[in-house]
Amino acid sequence: MSHNELEKMFIRWAGVAMVALAVVSATWVFADELAALHSRTLADKTRTGGQTTVYVTNKHAFGRSAANMPLARQRDFSFGNRLFNTNWVTAPASVQSLDGLGPLFNRASCSGCHTRDGRGRPPMSPDEAMVSMLVRLSMLDDAGQAVPHPMYGSQLNDRAIVGVPAEGRASLRWEPVAGKFDDGQPYELHRTVISFVDMGYGAMDEDVMFSPRVAPQVFGLGLLEAIPDAAILAKVDADDADGDGISGRANYVLDEARGEIALGRFGWKSNQPTLRQQITGAFLGDIGITTSMFPRENVVAAQTAANESAHGGEPELSNEFLDKIEFYMRMLAPPAARGLEKPVVQRGEAMFFAANCHTCHTPEFQTGHHPEKELAYQTIRPFTDLLLHDMGEGLADHRPDGLADGREWRTPPLWGLGLVPVVNRHSFYLHDGRARNLEEAVLWHGGEGQASADAYRAMSKADREALIAFLKAI
Ligand code: HEC
Ligand code: HEC
Questions:
Q1: Least distant ligand from the CA of 431
Q2: Closest Cα to atom 39, ligand 1: which residue?
């Protein structure tokens, strides 16, 4: 063997050894991380929001301020709460600071959709209006770029002030989808079918891209905002380098305040980078209230009557009020976990890890620096990685949003989900509320989540029940 060949062989072996070492150490780090998670005490696991955690299990479970917030700040929190529950009225009105509704809108208040800071639901029949969900819209332009619909914009507004035509209505019905557990027991899911009716500004285009979304519960978001970018990005595995079938991509969207692209965290596709922008976006898109961040009404030029209607100030919401509602949203704390000591819940936790649910629903994060110091440096248990995952054809909306494609969704946090029936008196889950309970939500997982759903279908009935008991507890 020549010196040259020896050298090549050495380089090859060194390469193999390095890859092997990397795999071993990656597995070791992973095993270490898992071991650390398992070593948490029940008390640690119960404190979902670290020191902010609130111990409330009634219908106000999503509406409490962080437990570590000093009493002196309660006034601001209560004022923010009032703004969140305010029914905005048409301008001009006697209370000038609370007018400016519309001209086009979906609901007159934030709490109209996020009732008791909780979760919306789909309509129960095709004739029922959407009361706590909305439909996002877009079209492809000549260059193949997704742009707002030329007439209906990026969200269908099904209501309008007097004298202005509403945009129309998205009618929702369900179609059955049959399935079977591995033990032979059949089940039936249903998928969402949307049609556009009573259109006020011309028929909806055949090739419109649309995305029906329910209003998610809104507690714990300040803590999610306080997770350092680096901690989220550390979980990105865009090309699935570790070969576990799960990639995880970051969404990047325009941060209006800084005028630069930033990591998306909020919304069903991580389509908003900060709570402030999520809030101002909601004021404009859902209620028709302008802010310093979005000073122009959400109306296209051809919507003449809407353009000619009165305004409630420029902007309609002052920065002072915006600060208060942002503070309120940041301080809404996650409810503590419940019943983690029960054997069935502990079995369910083991099933959760066995089915690899934790690869996307990351159990634990440490928050970093945050302007609200109550939220900084907390150990939290949100069960989300805040990243985008391809969830397969069944859940696809075929509407890109930022860098998210038509099959990708942000892993939603699982904390507090078991209290949705208490707070909102329903148990509809997933982005369009098609799952009638937690089990159906799991069964819908496809794409990167397919293997987890398959693992669930393969479990014994008792193990499946244990896993659901765990989801209800966290
Ligand atoms: C018409 C119903 C509706 C109204 C009214 C509404 N929202 Fe929402 N909200 C939603 C939907 C739907 C989403 C998910 C949006 C998405 O995925 O793009 C959402 C998302 C959010 C989120 C992010 C939640 C998360 O987990 O990422 C916050 C915060 C929020 N809304 C606050 C508000 C505030 C503040 C108001 C009042 C100014 C408001 N919303 C009014 C439906 C509504
Ligand atoms: C590949 C990443 C991934 C894996 C693995 C995964 N999930 Fe999910 N999960 C998601 C995403 C993304 C959604 C949102 C999908 C949607 O709304 O269309 C979701 C939604 C859910 C929901 C509904 C949440 C809500 O707010 O509506 C539940 C419950 C859930 N997952 C539980 C589980 C369980 C239990 C497992 C393991 C058996 C699991 N998930 C595995 C990514 C994942």
A1: 2
A2: 110
